[in-house]
Amino acid sequence: MNRRLFLLSASGVVAQPLLKSLVPTPSGLLYAAQQGAPKASTANVAAKAPPAKANHSLTIQPCTIEISPGVNIKTLAYNGQVPGPILRLRQGVPTTIDVTNATGNADIVHWHGLTTDSLNDGAMEEGSPMIPAGGRLRYTLASPNPPGTRWYHTHTTAGADLAIGTYTGQFGFLLVEGAGDPGHYDQEVFLAIHHWEPSFVPMVETMQAESANHPQTSGSDVGYQYATINQHRLGAGAPLRVKQGQRVLMRLLNASATENVVLALPGHTFRIVAMDGNPVPNPKEVEAVSLAVAERVDAIVEMNSPGVWVLGSTLEKSRQMGLGIVVEYAGKTGPPVWKDPKDTAWDYTQFASSTPATAPDETINLAFMDLGPQNGSKFDTWAINGSSWPDIEPIKVQRGKRYRLAFQNVSADQHPMHLHRHTFEVVSIGDKNISGLRKDVINVMPLDTVSVDFVADNPGDSLLHCHMQLHMDYGFMQLIRYTG
Predict the structure, then answer these.
(1) Are residues 326 and 468 located together in one domain of the fold?
(2) Distance of CA 122 to the CA centre of its chain
C-alpha cells in the first residue's frame, strides 16, 4: 500500500469502497464504485434522484500507443489516447466531469491552474478523495477560472514505481475560454511534450547526461529512452501542416514527469503572448522557448519561411529520442531541416513589467535543499527549510492578505515550483524586481532566488510543491493553510 492509499484509508475516505450508487457530497463530488457491490444504506440513497449526465467524461485506462513505427509504449491514459481529450470550458460556467478509474490502483485527477475548491482540486494532500480501482468520481468545477491554457493530469504518488504517476500518459489540455484574446491567428495547435520508458540512473558524473536537467545529486535520477510531442516521435505521425503567411497559435505544454526542455523552430520566432495561460505584460519574440515541467507557453508563430522544418528540442540527443515534430509548408517537400538557434538563453523578466510589485503584507522565506538519500532510498530526499513532507508544518495565512514567497534554491537542481488553487505574480528573479507576470509554475534555477506574491483569496488547503515527480514524491511539498 503506497503512502496516499495508507493516508486515505486512515482518514476514512475509503471506509465504504464498494458503494454502488452515486452519493452526492457537500463538495459536489460524486462517487460510484464497482459493479456488483452491496447496496448502500437507505440513509445514503433516500430521496436522491439519479444525477444528470456530466458535461465531460474521462476514463483512466491501460492502453498501448505506437509512438513511431515498431515502437509501442504500454501506459495509462485518458480515454485511451495521448494526450487526453482537449477539454474546453467556459469561464465562470459550472462544469461537471465524470472520471472512471478502469485500472487496478487508486488514482486522482488534478485540474492544474484552476481556482477550484480543495475537494475538487485533485490533490489528496488537500483532502481531495482518491478514485478507487474500478470506481468513478464526479468533479464539479463550480466556476472555471482563470481563463487560458490549463491542463489536467494525475496527481498520484509514483515513488520508485515508474509505471504510474506522471511517468504515464495521463495528461491533457484544459482550455478555459473567456474574454481574453491571445491575438489574431489563423490556426490553433496544441503540442504536449512527454518522455517515455523511464529508468533509474545512478547520478555519477559519467551518467549525468542522461538527464536534461544535469543535477549534481548524490542519489539516483530518472532517465528516458524516448520523447514525443503529443503521441509521436519526431518524423512519425502527420506533420504540422501550415501555409505561408499564416499566424499559428501554438499552445505548448511540458507534460514530462521530470525533464525541462527548450524548443526552437529554425527560420522562425515565437511571439510569447501568455505563460501558464495568463497574458504576459510584455509580449516579445524569441528564437527558443524554455518549458519547465508543467509550464505552458502560448506563442504566435508567423509562417514566413517556406520549407520543411523541425520544431524540436535544442538538444541533439533529445531530438534523437524523438522530441520534435515536422512543420511542413503547403507545396514543400524534402527532408526536415534543423539549425541550432543563435541564442537559447531564457529570461522570464523580459516578458514582465519593470515596475516593482506592490509590497506584501508578509514575506515567507523558503529554502530548498537536498538532504541526500535517506533510510536506504536510492533517491535523494528534498526539504523546505530543513523539513520534508509529510513531517512539515503548514504555512499559515489569513484571507485577504498578500503574501510573498521568497524561494532560495540552495541545491544544484532546477525546481519548477507550483502553487495549487492560486495564481501568483513573479516579483523578483535574482536582483531584478518585476511585476505583472502571472503564473502558477516558476522554474527556480540552481543557487538562484525567486520571489512570488499571491493573494490569499481562495480558502482551503493549497499545496505548494516542486512539480518534478521525483522531487515531490521524496519530500518536496508543503501545505498552505488558511487560519482566518
Answers:
(1) no
(2) 12
What domain count does the chain have? 3
Phi, psi of 328 (to 5 degrees): -120, 120
**Residue pair 342/382 in contact by the 8 Å Cβ criterion:** no
Beta bridge partners of 74: 64
Which of 346, 375, 391 terminates a domain? The answer is 346
Structural domain that includes position 142: 3-177
> Which tens digit of pLDDT belongs to each residue from 225-281?
999 999 999 999 999 999 999 999 999 999 999 999 999 999 999 999 999 999 999
Q: Is 134 left (phi over 0), alpha (psi -120 to 50) or beta?
A: left
3-state secondary structure of 10: helix
Tens-place pLDDT, residues 173-182: 999 999 766 6
Give the separation between CA 408 and CA 369, rounded to whole angstroms.
Answer: 9
Strands (E), 15-70: 23-24, 30-32, 56-68
Q: What is the DSSP string of 328-367?
A: EETT--SS-B----S-----GGGGSBSSPPPPPSEEEEEE
Q: Domain check: are 374 and 409 in the same one? A: yes
Identify whether residues 62 and 133 lie together within a single domain: yes
Domain CATH number, residue 409: 2.60.40.420
Instruction: Answer whether residue 381 is part of any domain.
Output: yes
